[in-house]
């Protein structure tokens, strides 16, 4: 079995102890992180190396940042600017050797978009268009591929606490939902929804307004699997325990288990 997790950690240096405990306690083999919020020089390599994990890091000063941690050898590391005119650390891709197989993983942090009438929302849609092209290219390789992370979009009504209230707002706007749906229509599969067809569970809750206590959240962190990976999916689950810790990230991990 191969256990893979994605988590918007919202500052890896603030939550390095939570991260290490999660990796060890949950026996995670590969971790895809977003919003590490540090440069590559500032990354806490010593703590990761102590666990015996390899790493690929694409950092940025104080914001964004993505990385891959792996118990197994990382054969390739690709730092990619999905929108070439925007040099932001939002996507990193690795090929990992597990037993006699290779697994391609990508950690993605889609822009939030701020508001539907903003330039940043247009940038978000452009990011999705370019991500669609990248993921479509990957499908042609017919590899076991997992592109996971904070997509900043809840796909369906079941993925938000109040669809009427949130409809038309950022992260649940029809334009961005269509972009994510287009990626699924390419052939990628939503691992959580395969495992839990009708379960309402969230991955993000606002820090304010008792959102966690009232379960007013959204499922905006996704594990998207190529057909080759989906065929080997054992299960996928959301681990909301980390959101309930003291000083948590506003996101919680999503974990999938792949049969090898």
Structure, briefly:
With 260 residues, the protein is α+β, with helices and mostly antiparallel strands. Helices cover 25% and strands 28% of the residues.
The Rg value, from CA coordinates, equals 17 Å
* Helicity range: 10-25%
Work out the strand percent: 25-35%
Text of the CATH class: Alpha Beta
Unreliable spans? none
Shape: globular
Helix-strand sequence: EHEHEEEEEHEHHEHEEEHEE
Named CATH architecture: 4-Layer Sandwich
Number of strand elements = 14
What's the helix count?
7
CATH topology: Deoxyribonuclease I, Chain A
Biggest sheet features: 6 strands, mixed
Give the N-terminus to C-terminus distance in angstroms.
6 Å
Give the number of domains. 1
Biggest β-sheet: strands ordered side by side in the sheet: 3-4-2-1-14-13
Class from secondary-structure proportions? alpha+beta
- Mean of residue pLDDT values: 97
- Name the CATH superfamily classification: Endonuclease/exonuclease/phosphatase
Catalytic activity: Exonucleolytic cleavage in the 3'- to 5'-direction to yield nucleoside 5'-phosphates
Organism: Pararge aegeria aegeria
Keywords: DNA damage, DNA repair, Hydrolase, Magnesium, Manganese, Metal-binding
Site (Interaction with DNA substrate): 251
Description:
The protein has 260 residues and is α+β, with helices and mostly antiparallel strands. The chain has one domain (2-258): 4-Layer Sandwich (Deoxyribonuclease I, Chain A). 25% of the residues lie in helices and 28% in strands. The protein has seven helices and 14 strands. It has helices at 16-26, 45-50, 119-139, 163-166, 174-186, 191-195, 227-230; strands spanning 2-8, 30-34, 54-58, 66-70, 74-79, 91-98, 101-109, 145-150, 189-190, 204-205, 217-218, 221-225, 233-238, 254-258. The strands form three sheets. It has a six-stranded mixed sheet with strand order 3-4-2-1-14-13. A six-stranded mixed sheet has the order 5-6-7-8-12-9.
């Amino acid at each position: 079995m191969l256990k893979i997790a994605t988590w918007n950690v919202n500052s890896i240096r603030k939550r390095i102890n939570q991260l290490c405990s999660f990796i060890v306690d949950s026996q995670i083999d590969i971790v895809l992180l977003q919003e590490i919020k540090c440069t590559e020089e500032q990354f806490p390599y010593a703590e990761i190396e102590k666990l015996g994990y390899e790493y690929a890091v694409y950092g940025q000063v104080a914001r964004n940042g993505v990385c891959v941690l792996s118990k197994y050898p990382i054969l390739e590391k690709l730092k990619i600017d999905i929108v070439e005119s925007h040099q932001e650390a939002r996507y990193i891709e690795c090929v990992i050797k597990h037993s006699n197989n290779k697994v391609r993983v990508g950690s993605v942090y889609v822009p939030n978009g701020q508001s539907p009438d903003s330039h940043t929302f247009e940038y978000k849609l452009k990011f999705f268009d370019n991500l669609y092209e990248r993921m479509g290219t990957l499908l042609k390789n017919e590899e076991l591929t997992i592109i996971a992370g904070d997509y900043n979009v809840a796909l369906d009504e079941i993925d938000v606490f109040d669809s009427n209230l949130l409809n038309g707002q950022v992260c649940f706007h029809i334009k961005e939902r269509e972009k994510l749906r287009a990626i699924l229509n390419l052939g990628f599969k939503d691992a959580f929804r395969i495992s839990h067809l009708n379960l309402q569970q969230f991955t993000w809750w606002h820090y304010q307004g008792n959102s966690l206590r009232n379960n007013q959240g959204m499922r905006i962190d996704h594990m998207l699997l190529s057909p080759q990976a989906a065929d080997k999916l054992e299960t996928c689950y959301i681990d909301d325990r980390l959101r309930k810790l003291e000083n948590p990230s506003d996101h919680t991990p999503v974990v999938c288990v792949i049969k090898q």
